[in-house]
Specification:
Elements lengths: L15 E4 L15 H5 L2 H7 L3 E4 L3 E2 L11 E5 L6 H13 L3 E6 L9 H8 L11 E2 L26 E4 L4 E4 L14 H17 L3 E4 L16 E3 L2 E2 L11 H13 L7 E5 L5 H8 L8 E3 L8 E2 L2 E5 L4 H14 L7 E2 L9 H4 L7 H13 L4 E5 L20 H13 L4 H11 L36 H5 L5 H14 L1 H5 L1 E5 L6 E8 L2 E8 L5 E2 L16 E5 L9 E2 L4 E7 L1
Parallel strand pairs: 1-2, 1-17, 2-5, 5-9, 9-12, 12-13, 16-17
Antiparallel strand pairs: 3-4, 6-8, 7-8, 10-11, 14-15, 18-19, 19-20, 20-24, 21-23, 22-24
The structure holds 6-O-alpha-D-glucopyranosyl-D-fructose.
The site of 6-O-alpha-D-glucopyranosyl-D-fructose (ISL) has 14 residues, from loops.
């Protein structure tokens, strides 16, 4: 059943803001952002109007994957501060009417987590079965090339199996070798996770963003996958949306969320999820999670060589993807809407124009996304129109995925250094991780020390202080979009209809609720666009589309001609 204005959950009207703590605001001059830094920037978030802050991991961690490798789920890493700092931040957010959602990383732990240290200590350890330990392939010796229990390729290059010399067995890690996968088949593991989650909810957090939650259930017979990179195979069919994943999430809901779900937000990160599976995860009647992050639209520019071999986006592909997800989750389930996060390049550089039309294209893409049906997520700096890093040397990168990709490509001889640098410049996760640009001062107001990742030199023009002072800025446009969702039920709940599905320049759709209708038209190009919507939205007697609710450009412009990267939201009643 689709939500109605009367029974829709609060998060249908909400906008979530993602903070990547390492790069948000440093308070102590060590070059790494921290909790007190976040607390000092709440005016910015409140003025933006966001309802929820999602905090990327701040738990104790060796920081092999910037905190997505956790060694203590119930403490804060000293680089980010203390538990008291976190309590203060939660209190300060609540005082301003904002919620805090924590990142929940429970597909894997750090190899330095006491659970794994114990598990590794002996084949007879009571925690041996908390992780995926396997002997070498039948008839092969430990460490012999090809002796890994499966041929699976890790998300971060190389095998998903690491040999433990002491026992002669391998453990599974879908991500880095310092991120061993937990064995969710073991009920003790699940209960330990649920207890930890309850502890956080009791402490005042308002929900969880669940890291790679659709990878927690593996096919226990661990079959090989088709070969994709050198000797490595794609094992994803054997761990994506696996056999028991819905059972596990329903159990988690019963054990952790029952009775308190009304106030919470739960969102699953689900790489490779299909629409059919997403409906299962998010249908409220099934009591799993509120919404998931799907990955189709951020895969449309991946080329034949994968993510680091990008090709231009075709607008018609984007329409087909978003249109399908809008329709597929119209009567059950719910979409989350995002362009950017800490794993994706900056949208203005990726699908917009970060040169001449930076400001216009950032606003146009934001309008396009935020007017869809679903809960929008804004990643720090996106509201400023921050761009990719435009690094030109390997030594500027820090991200483990990028660095491992370079090492593997060089070893296999699959790309030249020039190609590798071009791939990283377009797609590296570090593009999203440069420090937030608060002002035009030397380190952009992020730190008084040396930032862990270089500040983008364009902070001299692109920064929060300058945009705050300019009503036509990207920042002010994001404020208007968020306010519109709060005020206008048709934005949150209206039916979605795609127009012009075969047009490569203009993205257009309608939203309707009762006798209220919005038209959204976006020129996704640097040239003028003359738009004829035909029967989809016939022009009115004055030749125009209706009353302008929100636009990206000053002045009315011509009635049905959009200027480069212009977006308009117009209303018609009755
Ligand atoms: O960014 C990616 C590489 O292209 C994705 O495959 C990403 O690794 C995947 O979406 C899972 O991401 C999440 O889990 C990872 C962590 O590195 C990411 O930062 C996190 O968002 C492992 O915990």
């Amino acid at each position: 059943m689709a939500f109605t204005v009367e029974d829709a959950p609060w998060w249908t009207r909400a906008t979530v803001y993602q903070v990547y703590p390492r790069s948000f605001q440093d308070s102590d001059g060590d070059g790494v952002g921290d909790l007190r830094g976040i607390a000092s920037r709440l005016d910015h978030l409140e003025a933006l109007g966001v309802d929820v802050v999602w905090l990327s991991p701040i738990y104790r961690s060796p920081q092999d994957d910037n905190g997505y490798d956790i060694s203590d789920y119930q403490d804060v890493d000293p680089v980010f501060g203390t538990l008291e700092d976190l309590d203060e931040l939660i209190g300060a957010l609540h005082a301003r009417g904002m919620k805090l959602v924590m990142d929940l990383v429970v597909n894997h732990t750090s190899d330095e987590h006491p659970w794994f240290v114990e598990s590794r200590s002996s084949v007879d350890s009571p925690k041996r079965d908390w992780y995926w330990w396997r002997p070498p392939r039948e008839g092969m010796a430990p460490g012999q090339p090809g002796a890994e229990p499966t041929n699976w390729h890790s998300f971060f290059s190389g095998s998903t199996w690491e040999l433990d010399e002491a026992s002669g067995e391998y453990y599974l890690h879908l991500f880095s070798r310092k991120q061993p996968d937990l064995n969710w088949e073991n009920p003790e593991v699940r209960q330990a996770v649920y207890a930890m989650m309850r502890w956080w909810l009791d402490r005042g957090v308002d929900g969880f963003r669940m890291d790679v939650i659709n990878l927690i259930s593996k096919n226990t017979s661990l079959p090989d996958g088709p070969v994709v990179a050198g000797v490595w195979g794609d094992g994803s069919a054997h761990y994506t949306d696996g056999p028991r994943v819905h059972e596990f999430l329903q159990e988690m809901h019963r054990e952790v969320f029952d009775g308190r779900e009304g106030a919470l937000l739960t969102v699953g990160e689900t790489p490779g999820v299909t629409l059919e599976e997403a409906r299962r995860y998010t249908d409220p009647a099934r009591r799993e999670v509120d919404m998931v992050f799907q990955f189709e639209h951020v895969g449309l520019d991946h080329g034949p060589g994968g993510k680091f071999d990008p090709r231009p986006l075709r607008l018609t592909d984007l329409k087909a993807t978003f249109g399908r997800w809008q329709a597929g989750l119209a009567d059950a389930g719910w979409n989350s809407l995002y362009w950017d996060n800490h794993d994706q390049p900056r949208v203005v550089s990726r699908f917009g124009d970060d040169g001449r039309y930076r400001r216009e294209s950032a606003k146009a893409l934001a309008t396009l996304l935020h007017l869809h049906r679903g809960t929008p997520y804004v990643y720090q700096g996106e509201e400023l129109g921050m761009t990719n890093a435009h690094f030109t040397r390997f030594d500027q990168y820090r991200d483990i995925e990028s660095l491992n990709h370079v090492a593997q490509s060089r070893a296999l001889g699959t790309a030249t250094d020039e190609q590798l640098l071009a791939g990283l410049a377009a797609m590296s996760r570090d593009n999203a991780r440069t420090p937030v640009q608060w002002d035009g001062s030397p380190q952009a107001g992020f730190t008084t020390g040396t930032p862990w990742l270089a500040v983008n030199p364009n902070h001299v023009e692109v920064n929060a202080a300058a945009e705050q002072a300019d009503p036509a800025s990207v920042l002010h446009h994001y404020r208007r979009l968020i306010a519109l969702r709060h005020a206008d039920p048709v934005v949150a709940l209206g039916d979605f209809t795609m127009l012009l599905p075969r047009d490569e320049q203009v993205y257009a759709f309608t939203r309707t609720l009762g006798d209220d209708a919005l038209l959204v038209v976006v020129n996704v190009s640097g040239e003028d666009a003359r738009v004829d919507l035909g029967d989809g939205w016939p022009a009115a007697a004055d030749g125009g589309w209706g009353e302008l609710v929100l636009g990206t450009h000053d002045g009315p412009g011509e009635p049905t001609v959009l200027r480069p990267w212009e977006a308009r939201v117009v209303r018609r009643r009755g």
